[in-house]
Amino acid sequence: xxxxxxxxxxxxxxxxxxxxxxxxxxxxxxxxxxxxxxxxxxxxxxxxxxxxxxxxxxxxxxxxxxxxxxxxxxxxxxxxxxxxxxxxxxxxxxxxxxxxxxxxxxxxxxxxxxxxxxxxxxxxxxxxxxxxxxxxxxxxxxxxxxxxxxxxxxxxxxxxxxxxxxxxxxxxxxxxxxxxxxxxxxxxxxxxxxxxxxxxxxxxxxxxxxxxxxxxxxxxxxxxxxxxxxxxxxxxxxxxxxxxxxxxxxxxxxxxxxxxxxxxxxxxxxxxxxxxxxxxxxxxxxxxxxxxxxxxxxxxxxxxxxxxxxxxxxxxxxxxxxxxxxxxxxxxxxxxxxxxxxxxxxxxxxxxxxxxxxxxxxxxxxxxxxxxxxxxxxxxxxxxxxxxxxxxxxxxxxxx
Length: 400
Known about the structure:
The chain has 400 residues and is α+β, with helices and mostly antiparallel strands. The chain has five helices and 26 strands.
């Protein structure tokens, strides 16, 4: 065999090997390198890559835990009651909203105080109480609250709470700043006890010795004599100035075979400019459909039942958690989620948002508005499949 013939055979063999290798490579997903795809107007198509994206841990942070057992926490207890809190400090995901479960004994009062960094929203669970609030103009309101009522105190507005009658009162509080803490509240007894007595005497125009009788620290929730209902007089401001709203008198925003949602935004409750809140009920088998809120974080306190929340956090991140009474959930703004009742009794949830305007986008709505050929392309299935999907948002529903 001549050198030429030998070289020809070797070349042919090599070419065949390259062709075979190329055939094998075409079956493998394209592995991109820096610069592949070109630059600016010289960009070009690339061979097909993976059918799904695999996210490296270096590309996106780990999915945070969105479940917290508020009522398993240690309460802050003083002579007249207690409070437990869920803040960014003990529940790191909750950067936008903090929450508190507060319990006042009969005769107790939550002393005069204010919050420098957050507004306060409340929902009364049981009992009756009277709240007094004052704003920067000096305008004040005295309002009595019972189960199902809501209050809203804007950031920095002074307020106090006192139990009415011979039964305790407890309520859920929500604040529009996850950095809030009951330990960082500006309380009147704390302030007075830290101010020189001669300065107090000058400020109030009374002898300094009077302040020797005052507590040397923050009383927080103070025990005291029972305030009879007959003496608990109100001075209510008219809408839109009032800080009180009867939530359970509001017609449900959603009311279906799967459950209901009563929600007060600033439209229904004008004082509540920076928060919306309400109560959602899911009947056994009910589901709050897949959706997200583009403008607000969402906070839950579970009152009854057993629910499952599925949270989608982008980048291949998702978690499913079970919630029971006393638990808190936190859904960051923009995160997709759905909630379903997985028990045999109604699930009741106190829900708040850190915006006075309620916004949501339903996945069912979005898919119904999209052409089948687009959905078929997205999911790689026959487009006719989507004819069976809902044609509009179902909000809260159950099968059958």
